[in-house]
Amino acid sequence: MYHVLIAEDDFRVAGIHEEYLKQIPEMSLAAKALNAKEVMEALATHHIDLLLLDVYMPDELGTGLLHRIREEHPNVDIIMITAATDKAFLEKAIRYGVQDYLIKPVTLDNFRTSMDKYKQKKETLHRTDEVNEEVLKKMFGTSPQPEEIPDLPTGIDAGTLKKVQQTLASKEEGITADETGKELGASRTTARRYLEYLVGENEAYSEQVYGIVGRPERRYFPL
Question: Which of 86, 103, 213, 219 would disulfide-bridge 174, Cβ 3.0–4.6 Å?
Fold first, then answer.
């Protein structure tokens, strides 16, 4: 059993990732942390195998926190789950030996794939006495060549944009930023950013409508 710490300042997103984790065999939630202070406390008081870490902690940037974790808890494995698309964050994460780097919003399929890759690496090492070519393939297997990345503005990730486009296309009755965020495992703010981008690209339009309780809400519709 692998004991997991979820470090995420948005409790709603943390809850989504917790639900994802429940569907992964041999993975168990040990603790959740909303800020860097709680991360360090959880690492000190719980047995943690894997840390799911967001870059944007309210009291300390995740990349700085990585340095402290590596000094004080060098045996903890780390997977970044973040909305940060800056190359500098990825470079630092690689230097600190993170196992994977997931861009929000994270779907259940992507989450499961990342966890399965992590478990395979750990189980391969556990069963291995000597390193050979087969072991290296399992540990550092090559991936398909990435698709050409379109020219997108800062803060808009191609993979996430595709998910939002697919979600929007399936909602002829329209969808709010909050509903989009819940479907994709992202915050409402992140979902709204992508929806507004699609409006600006003439791939969607929005209308102010009144909800069940009479409060206005903005719904987005595919074009």
Answer: 219
Residue type, 179: E
Task: Divide the 223 residues of the chain into consecutive groups of 10 and give the mean pLDDT of each group.
Answer: 95 94 94 96 97 90 84 94 83 89 91 92 77 67 49 83 90 89 88 93 87 75 88
Residue from 160, 163, 152 nearest 200 by CA: 152
Q: Does a structural domain hold residue 211?
A: yes
pLDDT at 176: 92
Sheet with 50-53, strands from edge to edge, namely 27-33, 2-7, 50-53, 77-82, 100-103
Per the structure, the complete domain to which residue 192 belongs is given by: 158-222
The residues, any chain, with a CB within 8 Å of residue 102's CB and separated by 6 or more, are 79, 80, 81, 82, 110, 111, 114
User: Do 134 and 62 have their domain in common?
Assistant: yes
Q: What is the pLDDT of residues 85-114, one digit of tens each?
A: 878 888 888 888 899 999 988 999 999 999
* CA dist., res. 223 & res. 209, Å (int): 18
**CATH number reported for the structural domain that contains residue 63 in this entry:** 3.40.50.2300
Q: Which two tokens stand for residue 150?
A: 């379109």
Burial (CB < 10 A; 0-12, 13-18, 19+), residue 63, is buried
